[in-house]
Fold this sequence. Notes:
CATH architecture of the largest domain: 3-Layer(aba) Sandwich
Radius of gyration: 20 Å
Distance between the termini: 26 Å
Strand content: 15-25%
Order of helices and strands: HHEHEHHEHEHEHEEHHHEEHEEH
Number of domains: 2
CATH superfamily of the largest domain: Type I PLP-dependent aspartate aminotransferase-like (Major domain)
Number of strands: 11
CATH topology of the largest domain: Aspartate Aminotransferase, domain 2
Strand order of the largest sheet: 1-7-6-5-4-2-3
Shape: globular
CATH class of the largest domain: Alpha Beta
Amino acid sequence: MTTTGRRGFASDNNAGIHPVLLESITAANSGHVVAYGDDEYTHRAEKAFKDHFGSAAEVFFVLTGTGANVLSLASFTRSFNSVICAETAHIQVDECGAPEKFTQCKMLPVATPDGKLTVDGIRKHLHGFGFEHHAQPRVISISQPTEMGTVYTPSEIRSLADLAHQNNMILHMDGARLANAAVSLDLPFKAFTTDAGVDVLSFGGTKNGMLFGESVVFLKPGMSAEFKYFRKQGMQLASKMRYISAQFEAYLTKEVWRTNAMHANNMARLLYEKTSSIPGVKITQKVQANAVFAIIPAHLVETLQEKYFFYVWDESICEVRWMTSFDTTPGDIDGFTSFLASKMS
């Protein structure tokens, strides 16, 4: 099915590049600079990360979100370790087994009603420490927001961090949409990452207006000493890194992250308000970021997708996911909800 030129609600990855971020790439495209990150753009971006995440933060720019997640996990694990995550986590569902392949670790998925791990849900996997017949739990990985569009509070994250650290484990956060969580919580990044006990963060911008490029952020001193080797071996070291760095500098210093995420979240709220009032549509998750999950009649899916593309999340119950983006308009939502309502009647 081709979706070229059609606006829809499939993914915030489908949106284009924010003009300010595109301009930052153009501005960096002048003259020669030292490759592989020893350049002024990268140095300024690194400072911006410290401003947002704390002076101890060490950032490494990479090419993809999967690369950021895999390398974050690999830097703390060995092949006999295990990683605890939600059953809906990106590392469990949508990375084609890359975490298992490249870390050789066992994933231990936890069933959740809303994508959020809890201390009680994790405890069943916290056994066998020091027992040579069991994979050794080493990382708790959470997504913020979750793949279900829900958002952890700082206290929830702190509880998971404390549990991890009590068991000599690491807390990893997949923050591909971290800006959406920050806007939802109305908190600075540091308040629910560094200050909440997160050890390593995969921080993305591609879903919120960047062209390409993600990052791995170590939030505590002494954790990143060997990461440059993991990044190189993991094929995630960009030679022309300035084009990633320039985007992140503009993203963080010009408040693009906040403006874009706030708009996307507001559009999701508007989409929720308009669809939840349509008879036959059942919203299944809290709308806390830029995702709306709903159950609709199965026979309508193909017809709706032909005009407004989106993905079916759970085919067994016909639960669909509608994502909004930094460039979603009220007109997009009005058109979709009117079309949906007309087909439901």
